[in-house]
Amino acid sequence: MKRTFAQLAMSLFLFCASSITLQADELEIAVFAGGCFWCVEADFDKVEGVKKTISGFAGGNVPNPTYDQVVRGGTGHIESVEITYDPKQVSYETLLDVFWHSVDPTDAGGQFCDRGESYTTAIFVLNEEQRRAAETSKQAAQEELSAPIVTPIRTLEGFYKAERYHQNYYRSQERIFARFGYVTKAEAYKGYRKGCGRDARVKEVWGDTAFRGIK
Fold first, then answer.
1. Pairing mode, if any, of strands 153-155 and 121-125?
2. What's the mean pLDDT in 93-99?
3. What is the pLDDT of residue 43?
4. DSSP designation for 153
5. Helices (H) and strands (E) in the chain, counts
6. Which of 27, 80, 140, 199 could join 33 via S-S bond, C-beta 3.0 to 4.6 A?
7. What pLDDT is stored for residue 23 in this prediction?
8. Kind and range of the H or E element at 68?
């Protein structure tokens, strides 16, 4: 029996949809808190195999918090990034290594110029396999440092996406009014990152093993 054009088109659509679902099922999630989530996004987007990063909040007890609520304190949430990656291209262990070497894990009061609970570091694990890997990598990282690592390994209870304004901030060409007039978010981000001393402090902590981007 001949198939109509509509039937052929529908078959092709269903095939493509199933392929997309299959590919999505092969991706995995990691969640890290490393201070300002704009910077964490910028770092992990450089890693081959990372498919998507989302800025958000984790660790607290308030559902769907706003950015203003989190930075005011009292929600228990900290700025975090959900990282979707292809385990065939990059391992969870490699992502852990990138995380440690792109933050100051010895700082319990925040990160760099951003102070307070909402800017503290954490590894949020989704299962026992991730927990074991995180604990092993934490031990290895500690062997490189003289000061004790204070970054906790926590079970992820929920992740809440931050407002659209914060997503992909570091590369956004949207113009905003800043200290020196109208600039793009990307330009404002570069000024913020340098002024906050993030890269300088990471270099001071880790030396030659500080993360600079894989690509």
1. parallel
2. 98
3. 98
4. E
5. 7, 10
6. 80
7. 58
8. helix 67-72
